[in-house]
Each structure stands twice: as structure tokens, then as C-alpha cells.
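Retry 2 of 3 after timeout on previous attempt. Resubmitting C-alpha cells to design endpoint.
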């Protein structure tokens, strides 16, 4: 994942790039990839109260060449300058499973 900022009152696109088979170096497409947003402690998920209209986990769409994207809607109730973590889980089948944690800081545009 290349993103490190969540902007307040803005749709945010999270991207997982280069999901590859580590043995063959081939890009993995057609995988099931999801993301869940956690508070800074990594043990508490951002709840439905803070995310009206969002069903967790959010499915990331296959953009090709091992890249996956998901949009987190502007309606998320996040706190400015607070850290969150995105947990991305990818299952490419046949033992091609990976998990990533990415620290995300919430900001207003112009911070």
C-alpha cells in the first residue's frame, strides 16, 4: 500500500500495488483482497457508528498487474491528526496469501 494519509470529508482511495507470487515474480490478479480500518492500537476496528454506509471489510477491486484499490467514503467519522491502520488481507489462492498493515494519519486538506 502506498498511501499514508486519510483526508477528512473526502473519498480516500487505498491502493495495494505489486501483489506478486514471490517465487515466480508474476503479478497476482483475480485475488480476493479486503481492507479493514483499525484505530491506532491495531486491536479495535473502526465501527459502523464511525462509518455509516460502509460494510467492513471493504473489498478492493482488481485494477490489473497485481494492483488493487478500494475507496473509503467521505462519510467516515475520523479524527484530525489521529493515526489509524489499514489492514489489507489478500488471498490469491494456492497458498498465495498475504497481510499488510499500513499506518494512516487523518488530516484536513492543507494540514
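Retry 2 succeeded. Sequence:
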Amino acid at each position: 500500500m502506498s498511501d499514508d494519509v486519510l483526508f477528512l470529508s473526502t473519498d480516500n482511495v487505498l491502493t495495494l500495488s505489486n501483489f506478486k507470487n514471490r517465487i515466480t515474480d508474476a503479478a497476482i490478479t483475480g485475488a480476493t483482497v479486503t481492507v479493514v480500518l483499525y484505530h491506532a492500537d491495531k486491536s479495535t476496528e473502526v465501527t459502523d457508528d464511525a462509518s455509516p454506509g460502509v460494510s467492513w471489510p471493504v473489498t478492493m477491486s482488481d485494477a490489473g498487474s497485481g494492483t488493487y484499490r478500494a475507496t473509503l467514503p467521505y462519510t467516515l467519522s475520523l479524527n484530525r491528526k489521529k493515526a489509524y491502520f489499514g489492514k489489507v488481507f489478500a488471498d490469491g489462492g494456492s497458498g498465495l496469501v498475504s497481510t499488510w498493515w499500513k499506518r494512516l494519519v487523518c488530516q484536513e486538506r492543507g494540514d
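Attempt log closed. Residues 37 and 86 are 5 Å apart (CA to CA).
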